[in-house]
Design a protein that fits this description.
single chain, 982 residues, mainly beta, nine-stranded antiparallel β-sheet, 5% helix
Length: 982
């Protein structure tokens, strides 16, 4: 639609009244025109300026319109004079907007798949978030985010900001890639702006004092196309005062000057925002619970009846509503109750080509929220002298309503009717969207004429709406992308059955679709068929799992072009796909156009497939059928939290037929990590971790088993597996780039035949060394132990990862990463807790021993230590009396026996000593038995045994005991309680 900037802002202020960012009334609405030759802006920046973002998130957004979207042009450029740090927002030679960011020598680029349309205003926004992630939005729609791996996280920009060109260091030289077109609403934010915030405020002007707004240029200066030669800079509307200096602008006339913003803002429906089109809603359960209901002013009983109003909302185009014939009043209408309030932007009306004299011509559309009070939304006239395809009634703006009514106002229509009447909604894609996931490809669901409920093809006799595919009629064109961008409203495709006779029968899960009832068209036209689908996979690397899925497209007329996410599959002007004969618009052939789902054209998230069909006859139909046996490639993937690279840099292993796996069989991708074949053993005190892995390598060639332990426990992957400089199965030194501080990684070779290998890595800073050994049997079954020695000082929860693969990268001199794809094998992630300073308690027991025997076995120092532990003062007591004193202390009831508590430790590290507490089972109060701590072994890798008499314990009474360990670092650990009796 043609929209002035003031009108666009009015639209946003009407329908977004609750925004946190306010709109403002405009006294003028200008943009800045760049001539593409030497016009440019320079914004003062430098180290420490508001543009020197460093570790901060940031957002840059602007509106642009260019007549040359297929020419490389720079929009925003900034860099560092001494380092590689740089950001660049540009338009590439394919007409796609692109954002490049370099952080400390590590960089990434994200390109939006939607090509810009010439002489059309587009809103572009780029965002840096979560340290090293970046994304780009075009007209509010996000691309697939990208990550800069292992960057320093700092955007160090010490130069000025160039707008409309590139430059290096010296602003008077090195200029290139000048922007040609108009620019408006340039904004810099020192924060991440969310998708909703970008969408909501795209059409609003700001005040300049919004939180996080670093610089803002609205270009509302001077006189549009007048003499503005006295203006030397574009005003920054924030208080930061970063005014952009104008260079080389003529500042007079209709170019290279401030101009009035006008032109095509969107070719989409007037009611919708940029990036959206109109799509029909479908009655979810016709005639059932939760479904819509329809009533009419009258229902005909002619020809035996069967003209119920409900036929207008049953998703079928071969059932009809017909009113009674009324010679006195032409006000026939039908009303639909959607059951709840919906936001709608129009109606789709489908009339019967078998009864076109009853089609509605002049009309009124009314809506209501209560079914009683109706308001007129729009009026107009429909065309009924062409083939019976869906016609769209588009509102000026979206309307919230539960009821909608289509009323005939044609005085010469004595009776009216139709086949379907559906509400239209503004959306970026269709209503039913199938998602590919790790567990299932849902391949058949992408077929045309596929019934999601039954898992089979729809019965063609129903002539019902297809659930996934949409279609639009277009004028003859060779520019498929422009035609697709220009579709204001899509119609649900109709399941029509075989076309031109039974020349190609569909499969049990596919059916022919078309644009009209029975697929008949009375004139030669062209059509676009559209399929929206999601790819719900953790990362772009996973797309390779789809490459064996192949579409076979049949058409009774020529398939001229195929777009995948806006990219044409044509090669040098021809659609050179498998089984294809360069379709350019001739009639039917039994040979399909076949396309395998090329991962280079797909993306994680939303995807759109568009087929351009050129017609040469009076029939148009399409059959999309996946080849028999098509399926995803099975893969295995880690299950650790996303920060460990299971999303952004997924450790993908493609599951092959030749046995190469951890455990007893190939991994099951539907269950994720099964931990089959992996046992982790932790040794409290030393902190040592042993990973015992068993599996099979029947490839006949060596494989590499790599283990990774997050020794920093920071929840991120920041190291690479360590093999030594050139791994040959011998001892590696573990020094240099083979170890990352705080992490422990080790790789060891697993023979394809019988054999044994061992490896030891030396300790470096933050990396206490690691060692491994592997034994492989004749049949390829192997067992390996990988030992890690993290240097935690407190109990710590962390993750381990183990990868088995024969990929050549894992045998190269470069250390392989714990993330990224491999061609075979398996990955296992497992969480563990390491307790480095606690003793490992073996057993705890209690027994009855004679007191005199216990005292006789104790030497003088032991007797003194025991008495002191019970809190008895020994000063002024003769040594000869201490044994007798101990006898009385241990046997207060005089029965000659005492309870003896015994416990063992398997390992101790930093154990200073123990306290022993007791309480009766069911009691509330703990009693400390030893007033003085019993000395521990401090450092005993094999543990020890402790005995302590409890004179307060009575026979045949259930007690609870607990041990408190005092550690050398000042901390304490409790063990128990243990229920004991004697």
């Amino acid at each position: 639609m043609k929209v002035e900037k003031t009108i666009l802002l009015l639209f946003f202020s009407l329908f977004l009244p609750l925004l946190f960012i306010p709109s403002v009334a405009l006294s003028q609405s200008n943009a800045l025109d760049f001539d593409g030759t030497d016009d440019r802006l320079l914004i003062p920046g430098g180290a420490g300026s508001v543009f020197d973002f460093q570790a901060s998130d940031f957002t840059i957004e602007l509106w642009i319109k260019t007549p040359l979207p297929g020419v490389e042009q720079t929009l925003v450029y900034a860099q560092n004079s001494m380092t590689s740090d740089m950001l660049r927002l540009s338009i590439d030679a394919a007409g796609q907007s692109s954002f490049f960011l370099d952080l400390g020598g590590k960089n990434a680029v994200v390109t939006h798949p939607t090509a810009l349309v010439a002489d059309t205003w587009h809103h572009i926004a780029v965002v840096r978030f979560s340290n090293d992630w970046l994304n780009i939005y075009v007209d509010g729609i996000a691309a697939t985010k990208q990550r800069i791996s292992r960057s320093d996280g700092l955007v160090d920009l010490d130069q000025d900001i160039a707008i409309g060109h590139d430059y290096t260091y010296n602003p008077s030289s090195g200029l290139a890639n000048f922007f040609s077109g108009q620019m408006d609403e340039l904004r810099f934010w020192s924060m991440e702006r969310s998708e909703a915030e970008i969408q909501d405020a795209a059409g609003l002007e700001l005040l300049g004092n919004e939180p996080g707004l670093a610089a803002y240029y609205d270009f509302n200066q001077g006189v549009a196309e007048g003499d503005n030669s006295t203006i030397f800079s574009v005003t920054d509307r924030t208080t930061n005062g970063k005014h952009a200096v104008l260079y080389s602008f003529s500042l007079s006339g209709s170019s290279s000057n401030f101009v009035e913003k006008s032109g095509t803002v969107s070719e989409l429906a007037p009611a919708c925002e940029i990036g959206e089109a109109l799509f029909p809603m479908e009655n979810s359960n016709p005639g059932g619970i939760g479904g819509w209901t329809a009533t009419a002013s009258s229902v005909s009983t002619a020809f035996g009846g069967g003209w119920d109003a409900g036929h207008m909302i049953d998703n079928r185009v071969n059932t009809y509503w017909l009113s009674e014939t009324n010679t006195l009043d032409s006000d026939h209408f039908i009303t639909v109750d959607m059951g709840s309030t919906q936001t709608i932007a129009g109606l789709q009306y489908f009339y019967s080509d078998e009864n076109s004299d009853a089609a509605i011509e002049e009309f009124e559309v009314l809506t209501s929220t209560d079914g009683v009070n109706f308001n007129v939304v729009t009026t107009g006239q429909l065309v009924t002298d062409v083939e019976a395809i869906a016609q769209h009634i588009v509102f000026d703006s979206e309307v919230s309503a539960r009821y909608y009514r289509l009323k005939s106002t044609s005085p010469d229509r004595l009776h009216v009717g139709g086949a379907e009447l559906s509400p239209l909604v503004c959306a970026a894609r269709g209503e039913h969207v199938i998602a590919f996931t790790l567990n299932t490809c849902e391949a058949d669901a992408l077929n045309s004429g596929y019934d999601l409920a039954t898992g089979t093809a729809f019965d063609a006799a129903l002539d019902r709406y297809d659930m996934q595919w949409h279609v639009a009629q277009i004028d003859s064109t060779t520019n498929t992308l422009d035609a697709a961008n220009g579709v204001a409203a899509w119609q649900k495709a109709v399941v029509i059955g075989n076309v031109q006779g039974n020349w190609f029968p569909p499969s049990s899960t596919a059916e022919w679709i078309g644009i009209s009832h029975s697929g008949s068209n009375s004139r030669t036209v062209e059509h676009l068929y559209r399929l929206d689908f999601d790819i719900d996979l953790p990362h772009q690397d996973y797309l390779n799992t789809l490459k064996f899925i192949t579409f076979d497209f049949y058409s009774d007329n020529g398939i001229y072009d195929i777009l995948v996410n806006g990219n044409s599959l044509k090669d040098n002007g021809y659609l050179n796909l498998r089984n294809n004969k360069n379709h350019t618009g001739y009639s039917a052939t039994t040979i399909p156009v076949s396309w395998s789902m090329d991962p280079d054209h797909l993306r994680v998230g939303t995807n759109t497939l568009i087929l351009h069909v050129k017609s040469v006859g009076n029939y148009t139909g399409l059959l999309a059928d996946l080849s028999p046996g098509s399926s995803c490639t099975a893969i295995d993937v880690g299950s650790a939290p996303e920060a460990y690279g299971t999303k952004a840099e997924a450790p993908v292993h493609f599951i092959k037929g030749t046995p190469l796996y951890i455990g007893s069989s190939h991994p099951n991708p539907s269950t994720g990590d099964d931990h089959d074949g992996l046992t982790l053993t932790t040794y409290a005190g030393s902190g040592k971790v042993t990973a015992s892995l068993a599996g099979k390598n029947a490839t006949g060639a060596p494989a590499m088993l790599c283990g990774y332990l997050d020794g920093a426990a920071d929840g991120v992957v920041d190291g690479r597996f360590s093999k030594g400089m050139t791994y040959t199965g011998s001892v590696g030194d573990g020094v240099g780039d083979t170890a990352i501080a705080g992490n422990e990684e080790v790789c060891i070779q697993v023979s394809g035949n019988s054999g044994f290998h061992s490896l030891t890595l030396a300790a470096v800073s933050g990396f206490n060394g690691a060692d491994a050994d592997c034994t492989t049997q004749v049949d390829g079954v192997f067992s390996c132990d990988l030992h890690f020695y993290p240097n935690f000082t407190v109990a710590t929860q962390t993750y381990t990862r183990f990868r088995l693969t024969s990929d050549s990268e894992f045998f190269s001199t470069n250390s392989p990463a714990p993330t990224g794809p491999t061609g075979d094998g398996e990955v296992e992630d497992q969480e563990l807790t390491i307790t480095p300073t606690a003793a490992v308690i073996g057993s705890v027991s209690i027994g009855r021993v004679p007191v005199d025997q216990l005292v006789e076995q104790s030497d003088a120092s032991t007797v003194m230590a025991l008495l002191e532990s019970y809190g008895i003062e020994l000063e002024s007591r003769p040594e000869s009396s201490l044994a007798e004193l101990l006898l009385k202390t241990l046997d207060p009831d005089g029965d000659g026996s005492v309870a003896l508590v015994r416990w063992t430790t398997l390992e101790e590290l930093g154990t200073v000593g123990f306290y022993l507490d007791r309480r009766e089972a069911g009691g509330d109060e703990w009693v400390r038995i030893n007033n003085k701590m019993l000395p521990g072994l401090i450092d005993a890798p094999f543990g020890g045994e402790y005995l302590y008499a409890d004179p307060g314990a009575m026979p045949d009474v259930d007690y609870l005991y607990k041990l408190t360990e005092q550690e050398a670092w000042g901390s304490r650990q409790e063990y128990g309680p243990y229920q004991l009796s004697y």
